[in-house]
Amino acid sequence: MDNVLYQTHIGTWAILALAVIVSLFYRSFYLKIFFRILAVLMLTSGIGLAISLSFPLVFVMKLIIAVLCIGLVEMLLKREKPIKSYVLLGSTFISFLLLCLIGFGVIRF
């Protein structure tokens, strides 16, 4: 069961990153819906992994940062002008980079 959750989580992250990049340049209602479905699937599989491993501190921190990152991407996609807010774009990139570093085990608690 852990392997299924892990593979779902990793695959969803990869597709979610591509969906965000495409959504930044091509505005579509269906891409936003696709992003939200992937975000829910990613959060569900991540919470399932955390439950199966008895909530280690790394997963709790990663969950908090992931929710923050999803919120930042939602704010970025709501903008009328795609890439005019460099602070929002930069903070989204930094939170995504931090998530990747925690996920690949470079940063440990």
Primary descriptors:
transmembrane, globular, 81% helix, 0% strand, transmembrane helix, 109 residues, mainly alpha
SSE topology:
Elements: H1 2-25, H2 29-52, H3 57-78, H4 86-103
Structure explained in plain terms:
- The protein has 109 residues and is mainly alpha-helical.
- The chain has one domain (2-103).
- 81% of the residues lie in helices and 0% in strands.
- The chain contains four helices and no strands.
- The protein has helices at residues 2-25, 29-52, 57-78, 86-103.
- Helix 2 (29-52) packs antiparallel against helix 3.
- The longest helix has 24 residues, at 2-25.
- The mean pLDDT is 86.
pLDDT below 50 for ≥5 consecutive residues: which ranges? none
Q: Describe the largest sheet.
A: none
What class would the helix/strand composition place it in? mainly alpha
What is the string of SSEs from the N terminus onward?
HHHH
Number of strands: 0
Distance between the termini: 25 Å
Oligomer: single chain
The overall pLDDT average reads: 86
The radius of gyration computed from the alpha-carbon positions, rounded to a whole number of angstroms, is: 14 Å
The portion of residues forming beta strands comes to: under 5%
How helical, in percent, are the residues? over 70%
Q: So what's the overall shape?
A: globular
Whole-number total of structural domains: 1
Helix tally? 4
Short précis:
With 109 residues, the protein is an all-alpha fold. Helices cover 81% and strands 0% of the residues. The chain crosses the membrane at residues 6-26, 33-51, 57-77, 86-107.
